[in-house]
Design goal:
Layout: E1 2-7, E2 14-20, E3 28-38, H1 40-47, E4 56-57, E5 61-69, E6 81-84, H2 94-97, E7 116-118, E8 124-127, E9 137-141, E10 145-147, H3 154-157, H4 163-174, E11 183-186, H5 190-201, E12 207-211, H6 216-222, E13 227-230, H7 235-242, E14 248-253, H8 258-266, E15 268-276, H9 290-296, E16 299-302, H10 310-322, E17 332-336, H11 341-349, E18 355-359
Parallel strand pairs: 4-8, 11-12, 11-14, 12-13, 14-15, 15-16, 17-18
Antiparallel strand pairs: 1-2, 1-4, 2-7, 3-5, 3-9, 3-18, 5-6, 6-10, 7-8
Length: about 350
C-alpha cells in the first residue's frame, strides 16, 4: 500500500487515500517519490479543461529514487535518483523521425490505461499524464525515467521534469532568444519564473515580467527579471516604453488565455517572435486581422513541453544548476504535503506565488 491524492471524478476534490501498486512488469520502473511540483496542467486535468480518465492519481512533475525495475530495464537500477518525464518519446513515429520528439504521437498512449487500484475495493486507477507523482510511489514505463545527473538536490530536481524544461525550451528552442534581446514573460507562475530565469541564462538584455499580482514582482526579480509590469490596461504601452517604443524582441505567454496571448502578441515588435506556452481551453479563441499578420511580420508559435528532448536537455540544465547559473529554489514558494494540493490549486487560481512543491 502507498498513499496518494486521488481524483475520484472530474471537478471533485482530491482525496488522500491508500492505493495498491503492482510490482513493475517488463519495461517498467517503480519509483519512490521524493517531491512533486503542483503544475497548472494538473489543475486543468482536475477541472476538465484537459481530458483525464478517472479515478486517477494526478501529478506529472516529480523526482525520486528507483526501488525496483522490471525485465529488460537497463538504464536505471534500484537506488538511482531520477526525474520523471511525462512525455517520453517513442523514437520511431513520424515526429520523432523528423527530430521533433516533443510532438511524439505515442508519448501519452499509456495515460488511458489503469496502472494501480484503490486500496480496499480494487477500483482501477489511471495515471495522470502517465506518471502519477501525487503519491508516495509510482510505477511508470522505463522511458519515463531519466537518470538525475549528480550535483542537483533531489527534491528541487522535480521542477526539471516540467516547469524548468518548458521554460528553458520556450526560450532556447522555440523563441531562440539571442544575447542582448529583450524578452517579455506574461504570467510568472512556476513556468513563467523558469522562463524568466532561462531568458537571463540566454543572455537577454531586458527581461520584463508581467503578472496580475503585484506580489509576484519580488519573485520575478529574484529569478532574473529586470523589470515588472502589472497586467491590464496600459501594460503593452509600458512594455513599449521600456523597449524604445518598438516592443520586445520576444514575448513568451505562460497563461493560456485569449487576452494574454493577444497582449503578448501586441507587445512584440515588428519582426519579433511570440511563443505561447500556456494551455487554454479548446473553445477559447484569439483573433488577428489579416492586415496585421502581414504588416507586423511577427512569428506566432505554439510550444509543447518547451520543444525539448528531455534526454538531451536535462543534463544541460543540470549543469547550469550545478554551476549556480540557475537557482531551482527561487521558483519554489511553498513546500507542502499531499493533503495541501487543493490549497495549492486555489493559490494558482488566485495568482499567488510560484511553484508549490509536495515533499515526501
Amino acid at each position: 500500500m502507498t498513499r496518494a491524492a486521488v481524483l475520484t471524478a472530474v471537478g471533485a476534490p482530491l482525496r488522500v487515500t491508500e492505493i495498491d501498486l503492482p510490482d513493475p512488469g517488463p519495461g517498467q520502473v517503480r519509483v519512490r517519490i521524493a517531491a512533486a511540483g503542483v503544475c497548472h496542467s494538473d489543475l486543468s486535468l482536475a477541472d476538465g479543461t484537459l481530458r483525464q480518465p478517472v479515478p486517477a492519481v494526478l501529478g506529472h512533475e516529480g523526482s525520486g529514487t528507483v526501488t525496483a525495475v522490471g525485465e529488460g530495464v537497463t538504464h536505471v537500477a534500484p537506488g538511482d535518483e531520477v526525474v520523471l518525464n511525462w512525455a517520453p518519446a517513442c523514437r520511431s513515429c513520424h515526429f520523432c523521425g523528423i527530430g521533433e520528439p516533443w510532438l511524439c504521437a505515442e508519448s501519452l498512449t499509456t495515460t488511458p490505461e489503469p496502472y494501480a487500484t484503490l486500496g480496499g475495493d480494487g477500483t482501477p486507477l489511471h495515471p495522470g499524464l502517465g506518471t502519477a507523482v501525487f503519491a508516495e510511489e509510482t510505477v511508470v514505463r522505463a522511458a519515463a525515467v531519466l537518470p538525475l545527473p549528480p550535483g542537483v538536490p533531489l527534491p528541487e530536481a522535480a521542477l526539471l521534469g516540467c516547469a524548468v524544461l518548458t521554460g528553458y525550451g520556450a526560450v532556447h528552442h522555440s523563441a531562440r532568444v539571442r544575447a542582448g534581446e529583450s524578452v517579455v514573460v506574461v504570467g510568472v507562475g512556476g513556468v513563467g519564473l523558469a522562463t524568466v530565469g532561462s531568458a537571463r541564462l540566454a543572455g537577454a538584455g531586458r527581461v520584463i515580467a508581467v503578472d496580475v499580482s503585484p506580489d509576484k514582482e519580488e519573485l520575478a526579480r529574484a529569478c532574473g527579471a529586470t523589470d515588472f509590469v502589472p497586467a491590464g490596461d496600459g501594460a503593452v504601452a509600458r512594455i513599449r516604453e521600456l523597449t524604445g517604443g518598438h516592443g520586445a524582441d520576444v514575448a513568451v505567454e505562460c497563461v493560456g488565455r485569449p487576452e494574454t496571448i493577444r497582449a503578448a502578441w501586441t507587445a512584440t515588435r515588428r519582426g519579433g517572435r511570440t511563443t505561447v506556452v500556456g494551455v487554454g481551453g479548446r473553445d477559447r479563441h484569439v483573433a488577428f486581422s489579416a492586415l496585421e499578420l502581414f504588416h507586423s511580420g511577427r512569428t506566432l508559435a505554439g510550444c509543447v513541453y518547451g520543444n525539448t528532448d528531455p534526454a538531451r536537455d536535462l543534463p544541460v540544465l543540470a549543469g547550469h544548476v550545478r554551476e549556480g547559473r540557475f537557482d531551482l529554489s527561487a521558483l519554489i514558494t511553498r513546500r507542502i504535503g499531499l493533503a495541501d494540493i487543493p490549497d495549492a490549486f486555489a493559490s494558482m487560481l488566485a495568482g499567488r506565488g510560484g511553484r508549490s512543491l509536495v515533499v515526501f
